[in-house]
Design brief:
alpha+beta, single chain, Lipocalin, elongated, 2 helices
Length: 142
């Protein structure tokens, strides 16, 4: 003896895969992982940085940031919510720095303070800045 399903129940069962697929399409993508990555500055204010520039940005652990600003090492904290980011409590060493490296260092640290968002595409990190175009562009070191 075979049982027949009520037509409404049968219709619901037939629609479940379609509903599940629709729900899966609306889920927010996971936040990009920054912890354990290191990046080298490629472009600052739309200008390529000089060859041999040592400006970097590293995320050694959740909430901590460090790097080389051009002459001096810097450190601080960051907050990430999905693809929004902000840097705070920044500090740096105070070694002598002159010329274009000093200017780049000042501009780089100031730009990090204006960070509002980021994207990772392959080996590129783009950091959007509040009230400033174009964004910072960095390439992945590790």
């Amino acid at each position: 003896m075979t049982r027949r399903l009520h037509p409404l129940l049968r219709g619901l069962l037939l629609c479940l895969p379609v509903l599940a697929a629709g729900c899966a399409g609306t889920a927010a993508p996971p936040a990009p992982v920054l912890v354990g990555t290191e990046w080298r500055l490629e472009s600052l204010g739309g200008r390529e940085v000089p060859a041999g520039s040592q400006a970097t940005l590293a995320f050694p652990e959740a909430g901590r940031v460090a790097g080389n600003a051009s002459c001096n090492r810097f450190f601080g904290t960051y907050t990430q919510t999905r693809q929004n980011i902000s840097f705070s409590q920044m500090g740096a060493t105070r070694m002598a720095c002159i010329g274009s490296a000093a200017e780049q260092e000042t501009r780089y640290l100031a730009a990090l303070q204006k960070a509002v968002g980021f994207e990772i595409e392959g080996s590129r990190l783009t950091i959007r800045l509040s009230g400033q175009e174009p964004p910072l562009r960095l390439s992945r070191v590790r």
